């Protein structure tokens, strides 16, 4: 290849070969044969995709941590870290070689006959090695190949090789445990990291607390500061920082295989082994996995957090926990409820009186859960400082049947209908001790409020569209064999003509519910909306809901309250 005036005759442009050629005067190995050998490889490189084949002269002071490793059939072999890393591309902005693999492990192999470099190269650099360049020990004056072994199975530098190079940097203090961990690491070649174990220093675990004891061992809970290995990118990349893990004591570390069989179930994922420096007990570091998903799913993340909150009421705790344990994937997160401490709200203001209690508006600092952040090992949230409605239920400090009915039915219907106001969780007023539902806030308030102030702004399309949305939601309720039993314009929230929500699900029941079994519920609702058969003491049916909807139709069309002209 000929370079004239920094233009490559082959490419007719300034290619990589010309950049290398321009730099020839900046280095020398002190040996003409080696210089020519390196220069010939560089002048054969014209494009980025071939740059990995370029050799370079590497000054010896660009290596650190140099130590004797072994002898092979050709001579001594050393291990070292290469400070700069290998040539990866040409950086056209900074006009210099771009590199990767800073401080990477490399192998230095002695050159016996530098004057016959081509023969030496053919003999010493095998098919399972990557060759980066040549250097010289300034003390011995020996020239050395700079290379990297690659895995014979993978034909690349795979995970197993990265693990192997780190063996000397850790020990459990027990040969059987070391061998067991190393065996799992040497079996990891490409995508098998989930089966790898590692030695985890005890100081990488925090908040260690005793949990329980089973027939085989003591069990502790802790947070793992670093988290588990995910991938390699010049170093190990990790996920799940500060994640919850369980620690199970090992009774017989010298029979580690048997210990694994006895103490690990198919619903455990084992990350590694650690040792308590005080008791000297070895412990497995693991997390439980979901029987349904066969992985650590969202339900498991919720479960691990149960110890960190309580509503101080077993029924409410169980209600929230059962819902959280039913959430397995990100697309289901919107169905989750949570216990929300009252101090996570601010600007709390009374706005109205509902059928079962007072309603307040507030700002929610945190916003609702959107998805699980696997890197930070916590919930990622949306709409911080959003407005929410806090619906207090009177005397709910003693958690009445009415309160549990309200939250249960609201949740069930919320799962079915987008037209039911969104339910985020439960909180408690620390002064009144009343529990409160945390709901989405609708700016315009009830449909009744809107009709009182803005009915004249609605054209016929708006009125019919509003009624269509209510009818659609009511039809879905009935298709799922549910009846609302308290439908009126005060229980319908109007955000705009396309966002209308049904609320107050406290009286909602299954359509086959028999009210005669409970005399207290023989009549219920707001009088103008109650069907005649309800007033006669008959059971509420889907037809009674439709009667209520008929009254709502009259109001939306006319703008007037029902029976407005009748004075009692």
TrEMBL record:
<dbReference type="GO" id="GO:0007165">
    <property type="term" value="P:signal transduction"/>
</dbReference>
<dbReference type="InterPro" id="IPR050167">
    <property type="entry name" value="Ser_Thr_protein_kinase"/>
</dbReference>
<protein>
    <submittedName>
        <fullName>Ypk2p</fullName>
    </submittedName>
</protein>
<dbReference type="GO" id="GO:0005524">
    <property type="term" value="F:ATP binding"/>
</dbReference>
<dbReference type="InterPro" id="IPR011009">
    <property type="entry name" value="Kinase-like_dom_sf"/>
</dbReference>
<dbReference type="Pfam" id="PF07714">
    <property type="entry name" value="PK_Tyr_Ser-Thr"/>
</dbReference>
<dbReference type="InterPro" id="IPR001245">
    <property type="entry name" value="Ser-Thr/Tyr_kinase_cat_dom"/>
</dbReference>
<dbReference type="InterPro" id="IPR000719">
    <property type="entry name" value="Prot_kinase_dom"/>
</dbReference>
<feature type="domain" description="Protein kinase">
    <location>
        <begin position="345"/>
        <end position="568"/>
    </location>
</feature>
<dbReference type="GO" id="GO:0004672">
    <property type="term" value="F:protein kinase activity"/>
</dbReference>
<dbReference type="GO" id="GO:0005737">
    <property type="term" value="C:cytoplasm"/>
</dbReference>
């Amino acid at each position: 290849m000929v370079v004239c005036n920094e233009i490559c005759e082959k490419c007719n442009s300034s290619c990589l070969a010309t950049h290398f050629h321009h730099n020839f005067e900046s280095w020398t190995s002190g040996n003409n044969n080696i210089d020519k050998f390196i220069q010939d490889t560089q002048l054969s490189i014209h494009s980025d995709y071939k740059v990995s084949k370029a050799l370079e002269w590497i000054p010896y002071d660009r290596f650190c941590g140099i130590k004797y490793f072994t002898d092979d059939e050709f001579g001594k072999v050393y291990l070292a870290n290469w400070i700069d890393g290998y040539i990866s591309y040409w950086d056209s902005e900074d006009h210099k070689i771009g590199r990767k693999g800073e401080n990477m492990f490399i192998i230095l192999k002695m050159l016996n006959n530098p004057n016959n470099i081509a023969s030496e190269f053919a003999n010493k650099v095998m098919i399972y090695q990557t060759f980066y360049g040549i250097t010289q020990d300034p003390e011995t004056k020996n020239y050395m190949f700079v290379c990297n072994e690659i895995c014979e199975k993978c034909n690349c530098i795979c995970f197993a090789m990265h693990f192997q190079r780190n063996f000397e940097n850790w020990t459990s203090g027990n040969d059987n445990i070391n061998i067991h961990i190393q065996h799992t690491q040497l079996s990891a070649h490409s995508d098998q990291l989930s089966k790898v174990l590692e030695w985890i220093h005890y100081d990488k675990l925090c908040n260690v607390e005793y949990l329980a004891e089973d027939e085989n061992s003591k069990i502790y809970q802790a947070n793992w500061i670093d988290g588990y290995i995910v991938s390699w990118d010049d170093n190990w990349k990790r996920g799940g920082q500060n994640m919850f893990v369980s620690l199970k004591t090992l009774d017989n570390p010298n029979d580690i295989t048997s210990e694994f069989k006895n103490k690990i179930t198919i619903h455990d994922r084992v990350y590694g082994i650690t040792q308590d420096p005080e008791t000297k007990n070895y412990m497995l570091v693991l997390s439980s996995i979901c029987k349904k998903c066969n992985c650590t799913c969202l339900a498991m993340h919720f479960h691990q957090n149960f110890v960190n909150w309580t509503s101080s009421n077993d029924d409410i705790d169980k209600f929230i926990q059962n819902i959280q344990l039913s959430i397995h994937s990100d697309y289901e997160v919107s169905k989750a409820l949570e216990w929300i401490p009252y101090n996570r709200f601010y600007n709390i203001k009374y706005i109205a009186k509902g059928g079962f209690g007072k309603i307040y508006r507030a700002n929610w600092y945190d916003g609702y859960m959107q998805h699980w952040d696997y890197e930070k090992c916590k919930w990622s949230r949306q709409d911080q400082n959003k407005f929410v409605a806090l619906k207090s239920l009177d005397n709910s400090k003693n958690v009445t049947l009415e309160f549990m009915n309200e939250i249960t039915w609201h949740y069930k219907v919320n799962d079915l209908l987008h037209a039911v106001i969104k339910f985020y969780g439960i909180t408690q007023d620390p002064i009144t001790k009343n529990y409160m539902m945390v709901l989405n806030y609708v700016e315009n308030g009830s449909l009744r409020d809107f009709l009182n102030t803005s009915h004249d702004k609605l054209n016929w399309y708006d009125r019919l569209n509003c009624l269509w949305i209510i009818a659609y939601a009511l039809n879905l309720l009935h298709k799922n064999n549910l009846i609302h039993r308290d439908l009126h314009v005060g229980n319908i929230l109007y955000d705009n003509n396309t966002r209308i929500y049904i609320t107050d699900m406290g009286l909602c029941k299954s359509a086959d519910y028999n009210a005669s079994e409970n005399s207290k519920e023989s009549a219920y609702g707001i009088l103008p909306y109650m069907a005649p058969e309800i007033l006669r003491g008959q059971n509420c049916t889907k037809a009674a809901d439709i009667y209520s909807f008929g009254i709502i139709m009259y109001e939306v069309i006319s703008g007037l309250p029902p029976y407005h002209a009748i004075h009692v």
